[in-house]
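Sample A.
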Amino acid sequence: MAFLEELQFTGSLGDLSFYRMRGTDKIVVRRKGGASKETIKKSPKFALPRLYMSEFGGCSTMGKEVRFMMHPMRALADYNFSGFINKSLKLIQKQDSTSKLGQRAIELSKHPKLLEGFQLNKYTTFDSMLRSTLSWSIDTEKGSAKVEIPALVRDINFFPNNRHSKFSITISLGVVPDFKFNQGTGKYQAPKWYDTMYGCSYTSSEWYSALKGSPATTLELSLDQLPPEAGYSLMLGIGICFGDSLDDGEVKQIKRAGAAKILAIVAGTEKQRESERDVNLEDEEVSNNYNRHDPIETAMVAPPIVTPALPSDVGPRASLRGKKSVEDAKTFVYHYTVSNAQHGVSVREASYSYAINTGLDYTWSHSNRETATIQYPGLPDKSGLRWR
């Protein structure tokens, strides 16, 4: 990279361009040149570069969304970190081993650790200012986050790099979608559900004295809504900003004074639909009622008991008797009959009937055409079956 030393101007001069770039106080010089735009787009010689250009374009598009979800912290950066974000996303893109070159997906939700801990400062980082362990948690179902910051004592675990009188700690939480190549448009795009409604939430602590430090602080925040599908990440950022007190007691934040980083990234989960959640709650309630030990609140339906058919040609006052062995049954059958049962209401009345049909002989008789009784030996009369 070339720099301009003596002359101080920006713009174009012949095939040279002179411009300023954040991160350096010198004027950068570059030469215009290379293949034309039309040649790069259509020439067969640039077929492979076009594939890499497509992928890097996807990283730049997704990098814009990453930076947008960090906008409360961007004022704390001391250099242009856009290219470094794109570089990290390119590493994530290379993890896709299934898609072909030029169409590899950028799935941050599958590789969140590759971007976690990214520093927004080059000269004085967040970890060099706040040298203490932070406890954090992200609830993917509720879309909320909590950060616990221990007590800060200057020159012990708090090392500010300036002489500003006040400092404050800010956290942010945002939704970063995965980007995939769209065959129809030929571009990298976010999921269809992603729109401008998904913003970044942030909160800050009160202003503390930079000379005294601060007590233990807990910061919490939550998002207004969560995506309906998976394929996104929740990104938690943290930063420390500095300010000076004004005459009216207010504190004015100083731009570019402070430090920030990406504290954590967690893959999001698919949001459960309302109808599915209601069904699951009903199933859980029925399951809980079924597992109770109170038999009155439980109804069990047994298969019908097979009884021998009675002859239909029984004449009046005929003395008919028969004896036949019933086939052995494999199970002991019992049948609950629950009355006045309603969903979600405890059953107060229940009647029970039992039948044993293993290895029994039956004898049936009748005295007239209207009534016939089948009785099983060894059982009381009331356990028999009556046919009318």
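Sample B.
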Amino acid sequence: MAGNGVVFEKLILQGFGPYRKTTTFTFAQGVNGYIAANEKGKTSMMAGLLATIFGLTHRRRGVSAFNLGRFRNWDNPVACRGELVLSSLGKRYRIQRNFDTHQVALWELAEDYGLRQLVVEGQHNPEARKPLRRYEEEVHRILGVSSQDLFEETFFVAQPLPEVSQISANLQGLLAGGRGASFQAALVWLLAKLKILTKYTGPNNRKVTARNMSKDGLLEQLTEEIRTLKEQISAGQQSADSLADIRIKIGTVEEELKKERRELKQRKSAHQAWSGWQLLASHYAAAATKRILASAINQIAELTDAWWQEREAEAIQPVKLRKEQEALQLQQATIGKLIEDEKRKTIQLQQELQSWKEKLSLVLEANENPEQAHFVLINYSKSADKEIPGKKRMRLKYPSKSKF
């Protein structure tokens, strides 16, 4: 389907002209060629396409020679009919016509050529006083024309080609916009529009007028605006390049600034750490000084205490020595007295012992019995011990060498 243009796809004729049996003509996109000898149905095919759309009159004698008697096959065909498939306005349609009864049906087809919707159906007699208006309106909507003559002039090209003066007024109106205006009026309108668009309409340019116009048209104005805009764009491009360079420099400066900020931050951190270390060092030094002073003070206090103790010891030493000397003298005097007493007692005992020895000798001599004498000595000794009044053992106490 070719956009919004009219494209004929298939034509089927039966009992029309030389085509007694069903004959199908398929048209491809673009230009189609049908080459055959004379009297082989080329004109009949074109007439069949027209008849399928616009119908045939049944009167043999009339103004139009486009009638059933002329185009119906002479071999008594089973039917005389035509069918046309075409696309227009983005849709596909099928026109079915019975030339004998004027019965016509217009269908809208689906993509697969199936019947989708019946648009209009009925009898369409081109010479009837009350034609099938709905059908003619749909044909005009689909093809853009409703007249058979205008359709021929629009879609068919005769030989030889017609001159401009031979083109019908209807076709000129269609070419001029389809509003009934003439071709010449359309040319005048186009010339006026051309003069608005450009001043170069003379023989050396578009060859429409005898000379060019003096005033610039829209094209010249747009050309000047384009030139001015190009200059501005060029200047703007230079500015943009300069701006790009400036942005690059700004980016470089920003990167350097970021780097400097990072270094400054690191230096600030290092400075803060150094300040903190100095503060801690000063605190530590102060604390160490305090500890040293406290230790020194303690040592001074200890030395002072020791010095005072030594001084006190030196002060009390003579008194102690004197007291020890007095005690020693007292002990020596006591010991001397005891020694004298012991000597005196020893002498006394020695004298007593001597006295007893003498008595013992006398006993031995008297009895001349040693055992008896020993018995007498022991008894005498025991009796002698009893006779000594106040007899006791005595221990002398001597001072230790450390006392002297």
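B remarks: Residues 342-397 form one domain. DSSP finds eight helices and six strands in the chain.
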